[in-house]
Amino acid sequence: MGKYLDKVKIETGLVAPDGTMPPAGQYLLTLGGKRDGLIYRPASVRAVPAPLIVLMHGAGGGAQGMLAMLKSQSDTAGIILLIPESRGVTWDIILGGYGPDIDFLGEALRKVFSEYPIDRNRVALAGFSDGASYALSVGVMNGDIFSHVLAFAPGFMAAKAAEGKPRIYVSHGIGDPVLPIDACSRRLVPQLRQAGYEVLYREFQGGHTVSPDIAREGIEFFLTD
Q1: Could you tell me the fold of the domain covering 6-223?
Q2: Where are the domains of the chain?
Q3: Residues 69, 71, 72, 75: what is their CA dihedral angle, to the nearest 10 degrees?
């Protein structure tokens, strides 16, 4: 598929015309074998089309950990979550270049768009740590698919091109020992703003983490025009 998710752009406008969707619950993606992913549809989703957040885990992480991070906010706000898992220990761009993970993300997006009535104007790509770096990179390259990017403690951005202008939320702990703030978000955010992106940036007292308050603020940013 390549780094721009071309097939997703073609197909996503042609699905779920009747507004039906599976019952509330947590479902396996059933696309990836041992490393797969989840779709979470909270019971609070009633009005359609529904907003969608695609969540990218950190290095060595998985779908269950990311679900725990945003489940309560998803339940409160009625947001569908798509949580794919990387093919390796972390995302392909960190390991050397776009490839199997960008393809798997495309497959996962096609699946969720075909089964759920998603609001195409309210689709976020979000992530934590390595997943935040991946979300920033892929989100900037595919701003016609993703209306927002939510990056919790990103390390870098490796976009090969830019399309559209997604709104961007970035958070980072001042005492982060894993991805130090000076080398990461304090460098990235000015670059993003200089490139013309709207960025809400939040620094907080803490380390390499996402607190409930930070998660809530990111969700509010996503849902507010």
Answers
A1: Rossmann fold (3.40.50)
A2: 6-223
A3: 160
